[in-house]
Amino acid sequence: MPEPKQLIVNLFEMNTVSHITHGLWTLPDNNRQRFNDIDYWIELAQLLESGGIDGIFLADVVGAYDTFRGNADTAIREGLQIPSNDPLLVIPAMAAVTKGLGFGVTFSTTYEPPFSFARRMSTLDHLTKGRVGWNIVTSYLSNAARNFGLDDEMPKQRRYELADEFLDVVYKLWEGSWDDDAVLRDAERGVYSDPAKVRAIDHVGEHFRVAGPHLAEPSLQRTPVLYQATGSPEGIEFAGRHAEIVFTGGRTAADFRKNADEMRDAAVRHGRARDDVRFVIQAGVVVGRTEEEAADKLRLYRERTSVEGMLAHAGVPWDIPAYPSETLMSQVAEAEGAVGHPFFRGFAEGTTVGEALGQLRDGREGRFFVAGTPKTVADEIERWLDEDGIDGINLRQYHSFDTIRDFVDLVVPELRRRGRLREGYVPGETLRERLFGAGRSRLPETHTAARYRGGANLDVPVEPLRF
Description:
Layout: E1 8-14, H1 38-50, E2 55-59, H2 73-78, H3 91-96, E3 102-108, H4 114-127, E4 132-137, H5 142-147, H6 156-176, E5 183-186, E6 191-193, E7 203-204, E8 209-210, E9 225-229, H7 233-242, E10 245-247, H8 253-269, E11 278-287, H9 291-304, H10 307-314, H11 329-335, H12 342-345, H13 353-362, E12 369-372, H14 374-388, E13 392-395, H15 402-417, H16 431-436
Parallel strand pairs: 1-2, 1-13, 2-3, 3-4, 4-9, 9-10, 10-11, 11-12, 11-13
Antiparallel strand pairs: 5-6, 7-8
């Protein structure tokens, strides 16, 4: 009988007040307001480590949500991802108090140059002893574009073309600039590194010119674990070439399976194996020692959820709450010149504004949500693993630190009893080994980055992705 499929578990976090649980920073005893305090991140990391959690997945944006009501006031008022701090800078603090916890960090390819980023990630891979991954994003906020000197965001296709070359540059730096045996540390001869085994990359492309060599010596993983959050056609093709762990989802199991199958097909088109890509979904888990306790928590979370925060986060351009509650959503769509827009098509005929706002507040859970006892939660997670085919979850955090503490105390023991979670960390393993197996600290030879190992192909242009 085959061993049961084990679950990858990350906590979904952001270096901000209100991430994706809008308004819940106001909950009693919530620690969200401590995000500026290094002790917040130390305590959180130690809690995650105590439960053997695989990683903390750090989101980020480089702009404000300013579409709703035509300005950023709602986001600023509610702490919706503003103020927010750089996610890379909290990783060393967490790494210093943990041995096994992994770190997935978001960084955009659109606005900053690849050379300096490659150095920062190599530094983190050294400091964490190989426990870092990169969530590759292209950024989507208009305000972000204006923050970096552009009039508006680039078209999605161009952002992905830029990202593809950005990845090509960092692969050359991480994989091709230094040989494995370049570092000698020969104190007797006074030779730290062999110059014959360190080389410039001399990349000249459409978007970037980078001479090299890479300033950091090879780290344990060289290239960090490559995450990507996507579901769009452009993102799927990009993931097929680059991603190892894809953060995707869908309102239904069929939606998820369709996305996952398309990405596996894309991986094969780029010379990789179908199982070279693993899939993580965002999951909501509300657990209590009894069904009643879990229901009470969920009721409180729904009562405190800010619908205006949700609308601002979603970039909805219409001020729906400004309409009388009895107004039909179809009347709002007509008044706003938005008849047929997907946002309005999501509501049944005859739905009023009051009903629509209530549905938004109470109905975000979708397929990958469960509330109940540890047994109820574990049963549902097993269904996600076995029926839907997911590989892991990014756990949505309703309350800091109660959400993850409840998961560690109540759900982890039940999943371990069923063979769905490992008993602990393997000393010295890298993040890639934790996710893909022992002996796999580095990208497989079938990955496009491997073409640069040993300094090969640095002057051979890679065929660009076409969307």
